[in-house]
Each structure stands twice: as structure tokens, then as C-alpha cells.
Design a protein that fits this description.
single chain, about 280 residues
Length: about 280
């Protein structure tokens, strides 16, 4: 029988629809996957910022994951916002129990609008409990600085930081360079079993509509891995999808703050080549 590529997103809910679970649902669907969800927190937010965060009780997070894993058996898991220490532990226990093939963990700590999304005590637990169980972690520069307690301002420092982040136990790290100054953007993919990183170079699109970019990229990578892509190819095509989503959503007005990218700019996003993404 035919089977969809199935992805479980474990993340927070964004009532404004641009990030979190909502962005993951759109991304996975746009890329031809089947999305299941386990909600870790309910946020009160819009394009202008996050007003409140209400964590879901850990036993309900555990129950959601178990219900999906025991029935649908997803090919990949994407993990996003986790606000609470006990929820981190519940997710880690579930990963050890079910041992999914692919785990893409986006260590969400600060929203696009600048709101802190995680308790300080939870950050250390992320390092010790979740990262060793992850196939890939996808921090941006600000998140990497928190994890490593050091500034990262150059590409050379990104290379060094990506290698250092592997000490937390993941099989690979994708360090995103979107916060570096200048029009060019470079992401660094470092594998634990390879000496040299893979660099992905692209051109920034000037846009205020970047809400949910990190959520979208990580769920896109998880979806493409579930489709059978190699890690390098999954990252490459996921970056193209996000770049095109930003480009085709830059002139669309949704809300008064940081609007969302355009998740459904094309029914077959990998065929659109208008935004270059060189791999070296």
C-alpha cells in the first residue's frame, strides 16, 4: 500500500499562524508530507510579539506523542519550542522509547520579535537530554551564542561554533548565518563524523515577513528526510524552499509586525530556482 512520508512536529502553537505548529503544518503539507502534531505550549501572540506562554501539562505532551507514535509511526520528528524542563524530559524519554530514524531539533529560544521563549533552567536540560538524541540541530547565531556562551560574528567563528556544538551529542549541526551582517548569507552544516563542513551560500531577501523562518526550515528538512533525501540534499532543498517562501511573501501584508513567509508559493517548490543557493 502507498504511504505518505509522515512527520511528527513537537512544538508550540502560534495563534497568529506564522510560526510554531502552524508553520510546520503548512510546510510539511506544501512539501508533500503528512503532518501529525504534539503541542508543547499555547502562545498568545501575533506578528508584533508574544504576549503570553502557557505550557501544556507534561503528561498531555507525553500522551500526544505516544498516540501518534503507536499508530502512525512517523518517519521523522521535528522538535521546536519547549518552554518547560519537565516537557523536555518527557520528550527525551519518548525518543529513547520509540527511537525514530530522524530527529530534527530546532532549539527555539527567542521569537522573531525578540521575546524569550524558554526558561533558563530548560536550556541546560536541552543540552543534556535532547541534543544527544538528535540527528540534526538547527540553531541560529543568537541561539548558538546562548548555548556556547560566546559571541559569533564571522564565518570563521561560525565554523568553529558548529564544530563545538557537536559536543552536546547530535550527529550533525546546521548553524544558520542569517544574523550576520551583509547581503550574503552562509549556513554551516557540520557532521560529527566528517572533518570539513558543508557551506550553503545564498543571498538575503530584504523583507519584514520572516516570522516562522526557523520553524519552517527545520520542518522542511525533516519532511525531506522522511521522503528519503540525504541530509545534505534535504538541507539544500529546504533552504531553497524557505528562500522562495520569503521572496514570494515579501510584498504581502499580514499584520503590523513581522509577517509570515509564503508557504504555498508553488505546489512543487523544489522546481523553482529563482533564489540561488550554492553548496560548496
Amino acid at each position: 500500500m502507498d504511504k505518505y512520508a509522515t512527520i511528527l512536529s513537537i512544538a508550540g502553537s502560534d495563534c497568529s499562524g506564522g510560526a510554531g505548529i502552524q508553520a510546520d503544518l503548512k510546510t510539511i503539507s506544501a512539501l508533500g508530507g503528512y503532518a501529525a502534531t504534539a503541542i508543547t505550549a499555547i502562545t498568545v501572540q501575533n506578528t508584533c510579539g508574544v504576549r503570553a506562554i502557557h505550557p501544556v501539562p507534561p503528561e498531555f505532551v507525553k500522551g500526544q506523542i505516544e498516540a501518534v507514535m503507536e499508530d502512525i509511526c512517523p518517519d521523522a520528528i521535528k522538535i521546536g519550542m519547549i518552554n518547560d524542563v519537565e516537557i523536555v524530559k518527557v520528550i527525551a524519554d519518548s525518543l529513547r522509547k520509540y527511537r525514530p530514524q530522524w530527529v530534527v531539533f530546532d532549539p527555539v529560544m527567542v521569537s522573531t520579535s525578540g521575546c524569550k521563549l524558554i526558561e533558563d533552567t530548560a536550556i541546560e536540560v536541552l543540552k543534556t537530554e535532547l541534543m544527544p538524541l538528535s540527528t540534526l540541530i538547527t540553531p541560529n547565531l543568537r541561539e548558538a551564542e546562548v548555548l556556547l556562551n560566546k559571541k559569533i560574528d564571522t564565518l570563521d567563528e561560525m565554523r568553529e561554533a558548529a564544530a563545538t556544538l557537536l559536543c552536546f551529542g547530535s550527529k550533525a549541526v546546521l548553524l544558520k548565518g542569517g544574523h550576520l551582517s551583509g547581503n550574503d548569507m552562509t549556513d554551516v552544516l557540520q557532521f560529527a563524523d566528517k572533518k570539513n563542513p558543508v557551506l550553503y551560500k545564498g543571498i538575503k531577501t530584504e523583507s519584514c515577513n520572516t516570522h516562522g523562518t526557523g520553524c519552517t526550515l527545520s520542518s522542511a528538512i525533516a519532511t525531506l528526510l522522511a521522503h528519503g533525501y540525504t541530509m545534505e540534499k534535504a538541507v539544500e532543498d529546504a533552504k531553497k524552499y524557505v528562500a522562495n517562501g520569503i521572496f514570494y511573501g515579501k510584498d504581502v501584508h499580514i499584520g503590523e509586525g513581522h509577517g509570515p513567509l509564503n508557504h504555498f508559493f508553488s505546489p512543487v517548490p523544489m522546481k523553482i530556482k529563482s533564489i540561488p543557493c550554492e553548496k560548496k
